[in-house]
Design goal:
Elements (H helix, E strand, L loop, with lengths): L2 H14 L10 H12 L6 H10 L7 H15 L9 H9 L5 H10 L4 H11 L7 H12 L3 H11 L2 H4 L7 E11 L2 E2 H4 L11 H5 L5 H13 L4 E7 L3 E3 L4 H11 L1 E4 L2 E6 L2 E4 L5 H9 L3 E4 L3 E3 L17 E3 L8 E5 L4 E4 L5 E4 L6 H9 L2 H18 L22 H9 E2 L12 E5 L2 E4 L1 H13 L11 E4 L10 H17 L2 E2 L14 H8 L6 E4 L10 E4 L2 H10 L1 E5 L3 E7 L8 H16 L8 E7 L3 H10 L7 E6 L1 H20 L8 H18 L15 E6 L7 E3 L17 E3 L11 E4 L6 H18 L8 E4 L3 H10 L1 H8 E4 L17 E4 L18 E4 L19 E4 L2 H10 L5 H8 L23
Length: about 950
């Protein structure tokens, strides 16, 4: 059978699912389609024309290469197609973004036919996705005296590709749609259990919110054809949790505008809003698509006569509504005055200046942030090629500089990595600049979208300025089902060719890894002054500053080695008091959030950097804190370590990178060896005193300072989704932190989970030691609830085997993963045994394995969102409560939450976290967690 016949069969299958033909990325299929177009009497000719014109993906796909080649033939007159004139062929090329289309346009512009060359030049003037190979051709032609090349480069120097775009509308009419009350997780917009379909945009779009919501949005569009639907998180924040381009893609698919008539299911310019604004990561993703994110402030705290918040019976502030945004409300966005107005465009409801900074206005005008990033590079190239002064057409990098004010840690990192800033300029929070990205991570459920983004922006190779880049396989590690078998090898092969270190070797030389991406990135980050970008909200390293990002921003970082973002304000977190021996550091993490809310009332971490002064805590345990800051809604976090601690953490990182090298994972460019070299240089700088461990200046300015009192932490704590709270907006947040005594040893636990990026080697050792303790106490260990354990990395399992702990776990386990025969179906029922699962995200991801519906799960995970770890049953809400490893293990054995005394007995003799505030260094910092 031909590829075309297979495609027709697939079309019929998709019809049964209510789907259109899948966009074509296969060059072999386009070859057959072109042959059928050329054959006048072919029965498939008309359909082939439609597929060629309207259904072939642009960029660097092999399909785009064949399409560009055929369009070139038509323009040159070597092929005649009645339905595609030369002018139409040029129009089609103009929508193909870059790669093969730009190569063809350059061939024509620099060719012998002057009329064709002029037409090609006019199209090239509108293009921005040019790479060094393209600009080098233009420069060579310019230097050779080619007038067409000069004309193109002069146009680039004026940035006419941007300046000639239509201005954004002064007034944008919107009609509201409340997606939910309270914080809206990206899981609602792009469920984790549908991750396999994200690269198929039309199919994935069917999973957004619900079928009913989709029907209601469509009805609003029919009722208001002149308005755009604005998706709202009422009484909450929009887009918390995972950093999902797929979530924004889905919102754009249902409420945005079509990017090109010749590219199906790629929409842009969504408008989203929340009572408490937009999650920082999600807002970045909205910018990628040229969308608008609005902080509504439509509910405010009710104040008494003295200006103090009035509290309800639960101690929470009473809210009052300033204005209504109920579904179907018509509002007006004025982009000039930067106000949200009522439907008639009269009364001002709220100032939305923050939604329309000069940079965001450019993203909106250009249809997304990529075009601006590449446009700036292109204009700089042109000015340099012409030997003229650059007169930027873009808003200058926003520079905020306060004379005499010191720098926070994040300000120091941004100043070190800033690109295109005048030498000597000091940048403080609020500055908006381009920065060099040192480490980039891509994970497997967003990786296929990242590869699509790379193809769409015509990128073919990793930027040489990136120190380290890794593609993981952890999010789909639990089940090697048909979806994983179809997607994972294809993704790994693409990323391997692009230049990343990949978890799976396309050549099959080394054993496939499913190591959790954040743990790998934490190891390969070998400079405390580094900037890290990763395709997941938990890209939060204990060295440098790391930002979780959407798949598009990851693609941009891989292709250009840069990112553009404002420098966030910082909140300083320090500690006082002493940590009780029976407490785990996870309890310090919970206490930080609880004490912060108690001190300030509002979440001062939201959208800011948490600068945590961790002192002597090594990278693995420090990562427990930084990882959790995603749930605190922080933009990122930074660990301030002492010199010797940093050195020891870097030595551990070096050893783990060397293990990767020994397994055969290094690439042709010896990226992993380069990271070891960087670590050795950094260690040398610290030891010599030339450049000590990163620390803020004494006179740095902070938005707030939080002091965590360790003396107040006297019993384990649990983050509770509070699923039955009468106030819907209070459910499924991470703000309800409770001591275990709150539950009176009566909270039934249906399943325990020790795993995800929040645990490390020490946690798995704690499981083994607790099992030994409990057996010694009672003669045997009986699980009254299933206990699922998933180590984060294979290295950890190897070390546990050497140290004897894995044998202890095997003794008590009823299931152990087998890589020679991985599970091909997700587990739906659990016995009351210990499960030793494959390294990876497992239940935390929720896209493959899940707890039974309606279960109460106690987990070390970071995710308590509705439906993520556990779904509701018909008669009971699923709950995912989050706690430390010792609490989870004991609760699974007891089948309920423990008393404080039961907990203390179970951890007796286990050397838990050795942590003390700086200047109160414990005698030995190497606890069991080491």
């Amino acid at each position: 059978m031909s590829l075309y016949s297979d495609y027709l069969q697939e079309i019929e299958t998709r019809k049964d699912q209510g789907l259109h033909p899948k966009p074509i990325d296969d060059g072999g299929l386009v070859k057959e389609i072109v042959a059928q177009i050329k054959e006048a009497g072919n029965e498939h000719r008309q359909d082939s024309l439609k597929f060629f014109i309207y259904n072939t993906l642009p960029g660097t796909t092999s399909a785009a290469g064949e399409k560009a080649k055929f369009l070139k033939e038509i323009i040159l007159g070597n092929s005649v197609v009645e339905e595609i004139s030369a002018a139409f062929a040029f129009e089609l090329l103009s929508h193909m973004k870059g790669g093969p289309s730009v190569e063809v346009l350059l061939d024509l512009a620099l060719g012998e036919d002057k009329a064709i060359a002029q037409d090609a030049a006019e199209v090239l003037k509108t293009q921005v996705f040019l790479y060094e190979a393209d600009t080098s051709r233009l420069k060579d032609a310019l230097d050779a005296g080619n007038e067409i090349a000069k004309d193109i480069v002069e146009s680039y120097a004026k940035a006419e590709f941007f300046t000639k775009l239509p201005e954004i509308d002064e007034e944008i009419k919107v009609v509201t749609y409340i997606a939910a009350e309270g914080d809206i997780s990206t899981d609602l917009l792009s469920p984790g259990n549908q991750a396999h379909s994200r690269a198929d945009r039309e199919l994935h779009g069917k999973c957004m919110i619900s079928e009913r919501a989709q029907e209601e949005i469509q009805a609003l569009k029919l009722q208001h054809p002149d308005k755009q639907v604005m998706l709202i998180a009422e009484k909450g924040t929009m887009g918390v949790g995972s950093s999902r381009m797929s979530g924004v893609n889905n919102v754009a698919l249902w409420t945005g505008k079509q990017a090109s008539p010749y590219v199906p299911f790629v929409n842009f310019a969504p408008i989203v809003a929340g009572t408490n604004g937009i999650s920082p990561i999600f807002l970045t993703t909205v910018g990628v698509t040229g969308g608008i994110g609005i902080d509504l402030k439509n509910w405010v705290k009710k104040l008494d006569d003295d200006g103090n918040p009035i509290l309800n019976n639960d101690g929470n502030p009473v809210l009052e509504q300033k204005y209504s945004v109920e579904t179907g409300t018509v509002l007006t966005i004025n982009t000039k005055t930067k106000k949200l107005l009522n439907g008639e465009g009269g009364d001002e409801l709220v100032d939305i200046t923050s939604s329309f900074s000069p940079q965001k206005l450019e993203f909106i005008k250009a249809g997304g942030s990529y075009a601006i990033v590449f446009g700036k590079k292109l204009q700089s190239f042109a000015a340099e090629a012409l030997g003229i002064e650059l007169k930027s057409a873009f808003a200058p990098s926003k520079v905020v500089s306060h004379e005499g004010q010191g720098l926070t840690a994040v300000e120091k990192i941004f100043n070190r990595n800033a690109v295109g800033v005048k030498p000597g300029t000091v940048l403080h929070a609020g500055s908006d600049v381009r920065v060099k990205v040192n480490i980039v991570g891509s994970q497997d459920t967003t990786g296929l979208m990242t590869s699509q983004e790379l193809e769409a922006m015509a990128a073919t190779v990793l930027s040489p300025t990136v120190d380290g880049a890794y593609q993981s396989g952890c999010h789909t590690a639990s089940v090697w089902d048909l979806k994983a078998q179809a997607n994972t090898p294809r993704l790994m092969a693409f990323m391997h060719r692009f230049g990343l270190i990949t978890a799976r070797d396309p050549k099959g030389v080394y054993h496939s890894m499913t190591d959790v991406i954040h743990k790998v990135l934490n190891d390969i980050t070998v400079d405390d002054w580094a900037i890290i970008i990763g395709g997941d909200s938990h890209t939060r390293m204990s060295k440098g500053v790391a930002f979780g990002a959407d798949s598009g921003t990851v693609a941009l970082a891989l292709a250009t080695g840069e990112a553009t973002m404002p420098i966030p304000e910082s909140v300083k977190v320090t500690f006082k008091g002493a940590m009780a021996d029976h407490m785990d550091f996870r309890d310090v993490v919970h206490a930080t959030q609880a004490q912060m809310l108690k001190q300030f009332g509002d979440n001062v971490f939201q959208g800011r950097i948490i600068e945590v002064h961790i002192g002597t805590l090594l990278a693995d345990q420090a990562f427990t804190f930084t990882d959790w800051t995603a749930e605190m809604k922080a933009k990122a976090s930074i660990c301030i370590s002492e010199d010797e601690t940093l050195i020891e953490s870097l030595e551990i990182a070096k050893a783990r990178i060397q293990t990767m090298i020994d397994k055969g994972m290094d690439n042709e460019n010896r990226m992993l060896q380069g990271l070891i070299d960087i670590a050795e240089q950094r260690i040398s700088e610290v030891r010599s005193g030339e450049k000590p461990a990163l620390s803020p200046d004494a006179n740095a300015k902070y938005f707030a300072e939080v002091v965590v009192d360790l003396d107040e932490i006297n019993e384990p704590m649990i983050a509770d989704p509070d699923v039955n709270n009468a106030d819907v907006s209070k459910r499924y947040t991470h703000d309800t932190i409770r001591p275990i005594s709150h539950y009176n040893a009566e909270k039934k636990v249906d399943l325990g989970f020790v795993g995800s990026c929040m645990v490390h080697k020490g946690d798995v050792k704690i499981v083994a030691q607790m099992l030994k303790n409990l057996e010694k106490d009672s003669g045997s260990v009986e699980f009254k609830a299933p206990l699922v354990v998933a180590a984060p990395t294979y290295n950890i399992i190897d070390e546990l085997k050497e140290e004897g702990d894995w044998a202890v776990l095997q003794k008590y386990s009823g299931f152990e993963f087998d890589d020679t025969a991985p599970k091909q179906t997700a587990r739906v029922e659990y016995e009351n045994i210990l499960y030793l699962e494959r390294p990876g995200c497992n239940l935390c991801m929720g896209n493959q394995e899940k707890a039974a519906k309606g279960d109460t799960v106690l987990a070390t995970s970071t995710r308590l969102f509705k439906g993520r770890v556990v779904e509701d049953s018909d008669d009971k809400k699923g709950e995912s409560l989050l706690a430390s490893t010792p609490v989870v293990v004991l609760s699974a054995i007891l089948g309920r939450t423990p008393t404080v005394d039961e907990y203390k007995t179970a951890v007796e003799g286990i050397d838990l976290t050795k942590f003390a505030p700086p200047l109160q260094k414990p005698l030995d910092t190497k606890s069991v967690h080491f």
